[in-house]
TrEMBL record:
<dbReference type="GO" id="GO:0006163">
    <property type="term" value="P:purine nucleotide metabolic process"/>
</dbReference>
<comment type="function">
    <text>Catalyzes the irreversible NADPH-dependent deamination of GMP to IMP. It functions in the conversion of nucleobase, nucleoside and nucleotide derivatives of G to A nucleotides, and in maintaining the intracellular balance of A and G nucleotides.</text>
</comment>
<feature type="domain" description="IMP dehydrogenase/GMP reductase">
    <location>
        <begin position="6"/>
        <end position="310"/>
    </location>
</feature>
<feature type="binding site">
    <location>
        <begin position="204"/>
        <end position="227"/>
    </location>
    <ligand>
        <name>NADP(+)</name>
    </ligand>
</feature>
<protein>
    <recommendedName>
        <fullName>GMP reductase</fullName>
        <ecNumber>1.7.1.7</ecNumber>
    </recommendedName>
</protein>
<dbReference type="InterPro" id="IPR050139">
    <property type="entry name" value="GMP_reductase"/>
</dbReference>
<dbReference type="InterPro" id="IPR005994">
    <property type="entry name" value="GuaC_type_2"/>
</dbReference>
<dbReference type="GO" id="GO:0005829">
    <property type="term" value="C:cytosol"/>
</dbReference>
<feature type="active site" description="Thioimidate intermediate">
    <location>
        <position position="175"/>
    </location>
</feature>
<dbReference type="GO" id="GO:1902560">
    <property type="term" value="C:GMP reductase complex"/>
</dbReference>
<dbReference type="InterPro" id="IPR015875">
    <property type="entry name" value="IMP_DH/GMP_Rdtase_CS"/>
</dbReference>
<dbReference type="GO" id="GO:0003920">
    <property type="term" value="F:GMP reductase activity"/>
</dbReference>
<dbReference type="InterPro" id="IPR013785">
    <property type="entry name" value="Aldolase_TIM"/>
</dbReference>
<keyword id="KW-0521">NADP</keyword>
<dbReference type="InterPro" id="IPR001093">
    <property type="entry name" value="IMP_DH_GMPRt"/>
</dbReference>
<comment type="similarity">
    <text>Belongs to the IMPDH/GMPR family. GuaC type 2 subfamily.</text>
</comment>
<dbReference type="Pfam" id="PF00478">
    <property type="entry name" value="IMPDH"/>
</dbReference>
Length: 327
């Protein structure tokens, strides 16, 4: 792999604008049969999304993926969303009970529009088996599989039947995989995305390491159809995490799905917990994201999101940790 870089090492090169106002730029993207306002999805983590926020996002044409950490609620959630005329998008794991869950979906003819296989190391036979199980029993669900970090993995999961793959092992803000295991795409997530996207024949979700709105445009440039975001969405009024007050400042919790806080035990911990500053309303952040992406499209010299795919870029420096600290 030559040319390894991360988000902060890259700048996109402006092209002549073809619009007279940024408001003419269209940030929407088609993904899995639906068109969404933004190429952005809040991470399927317990301090990032809950049923209420999922409902708001779906109602307002944003993509969402519900987390899998209250597994018993998934059937009722799917039915409730669909009864309201909204799309249902849920996550599954790969353990034995998840096979029974998929069987239950098929038996009761409950077909979520989107299913995401959410595990740390997606390039494995357990994930390939689950892809095949889901595609056999609920073939009409759009299936996202991950997480991976190599072109071989993207090809194998696509070949097994995944409709999209999720790229990113260890670049997340509350991730400590890179430190505890020495593996992953932390520090070179954007280059890994580029490498994977070249091999992909289906859509890719870039997952983790987004620190600024400009990083969304950079992800699109390097091949992402969707960008999964945790820390930037954490800390909002609508975020499910607990709120605390410290030195007169409001903070909200954000913890990793493989943290001790999520697992309830200290076993194979690869995530940490942190507090982020309270950021106000998520709706305002979504509007700001849209405006910033409209501006990015105008700098790309187009009026549609995918104009960003064609721009030149320069590598401005090299870094390892993308601004993260260990603890
Ligand atoms: N994107 C990322 O970089 C990462 C994300 N996470 C998130 O943390 C949550 C928990 O993930 P995960 O531990 O996979 O889920 P689970 O705890 O549900 O584990 C899934 C299964 O895969 C096995 N497994 C876990 N890690 C590996 C591995 N490295 N190699 C082989 N088998 C493995 C587990 O067995 P056993 O436990 O016995 O090994 C278990 O049977 C998920 O939400 C995931 O997205 C976690 C780490 C990295
Ligand atoms: N290694 C770990 N990665 C995790 C954990 N929990 C979630 N994640 C991944 O992080 C992204 C969000 O990244 P961010 O930079 O936007 O905050 C999320 O979508 C997961 O893929 C974890 O415990 N360990």
């Amino acid at each position: 792999m030559e040319n390894v870089f991360d988000y902060e090492d890259i700048q996109l090169v402006p092209a002549k604008a073809v619009v007279n106002s940024r408001s003419e730029c269209d940030t929407s993207i088609e993904f899995g049969g639906h068109t969404f306002k933004l190429p952005v999805v809040p991470a399927n983590m317990q301090t990032i999304v809950d049923e209420k926020l999922a409902g708001y996002l779906a109602e307002n044409n944003y993509f969402y993926i519900m987390h899998r950490f209250e597994p018993e609620k998934r059937i009722a959630f799917t039915k409730d969303m669909q009864q309201r005329g909204l799309f249902a998008s849920i996550s599954v794991g790969v353990k034995a009970e998840e096979y029974n869950f998929v069987q239950q979906l098929a038996d009761e003819n409950i077909i979520p529009e989107y299913i995401t296989i959410d595990v740390a190391h997606g390039h494995s036979n357990v994930v390939i088996n689950m892809i095949q199980h889901i595609k056999k029993l609920v073939p009409d669900s759009f299936l996202i599989a991950g997480n991976v970090g190599t072109p071989e993995a993207v090809r194998e999961l696509e070949h097994a039947g995944a409709d999209a793959t999720k790229v990113g092992i260890g670049p997340g803000k509350v991730c400590i995989t890179k430190i505890k295991t020495g593996f992953g795409t932390g520090g070179w997530q954007l280059a890994a995305l580029r490498w994977c996207a070249k091999a992909a024949s289906k859509p890719i979700i870039a997952d983790g390491g987004i620190r600024t709105h400009g990083d969304i445009a950079k992800s699109v440039r390097f091949g992402a159809s969707m960008v999964m975001i945790g820390s930037l969405f954490a800390g909002h009024e609508e975020s499910p995490g607990q709120t605390i007050e410290q030195d007169g400042k409001l903070l909200k919790e954000y913890f990793g799905s493989a943290s001790e806080f999520q697992k309830g035990e200290k076993k194979n911990v690869e995530g940490k917990k942190m507090y982020v500053e309270y950021k106000g309303s998520l709706k305002d952040t979504l509007v700001e994201m849209e405006q910033d992406l409209q501006s990015a499209i105008s700098y790309a010299g187009g009026d549609q999101l995918l104009a960003i795919r064609n721009v030149d870029y320069v590598i401005v420096k090299n870094s390892i940790f993308n601004g993260d600290k260990v603890y």
